[in-house]
Design a protein that fits this description.
This protein has 80 residues and is mostly helical. The chain has helices at 11-27, 32-61; strands spanning 63-65, 71-74. Strand 1 and strand 2 form a beta hairpin.
Length: 80
Amino acid sequence: MSDTPVEEMSFEAAMAELEKVLGQLERGDVALEESITLYERGAALKARCEAKLKEAEEKVAAITLDADGNPQGLKPVEGL
């Protein structure tokens, strides 16, 4: 596991570590206490990935297009 706080991780870093955590848990070759710690870290990593995806979706949703479908500018996203 990385020592980097989850809230400081990029989407890619959090996803990579989450995959490692899942691999360790699936193999079942760690002690119970370590499994609990891994599970908690995995839950935090999952939440971070979901938050980063939501941020990206909001940015993409805010891009406006002209009549030809070309990016024209940004507008505030409502209801998110």
